[in-house]
Protein: Adenylate kinase active site lid domain-containing protein
Amino acid sequence: GFPRTLGQAEALDRICELDLVISLNIPFETLKDRLSARWVHPASGRVYNMDFNPPHIQGVDDLTGEPLVQRQDDRPEAVAARLRKYKDAAKPVIELYKSRGILHSFSGTETNKIWPYVYALLSSKIPPILSDEEN
Structure:
């Protein structure tokens, strides 16, 4: 997400005024497991997740048959360190937006369970765009 640091939040304030901020609270272990299961095809940037979007053949890109790689920062120990660092850096950002009354937090482990609540919030703030047929 963005902004990730107080400095980034302050820079964002200089170019726009936010009226809504969404924070997704996902358990540490869930994030670590998902990121650690991510593998990529370097040439194309295609991303696979071994848990919910695996390649047809393990370790091989579906389209080219070339090997997939796991980025160094997606290895479990690196992910854990990244998440700890993010939590420390993001805390003042969360507090800033909470103090402004514009922070909306959602917790969970599954996108399909969190998304309806996020969608309802966004729908209450942004009028839907109607197609020509609906007008």
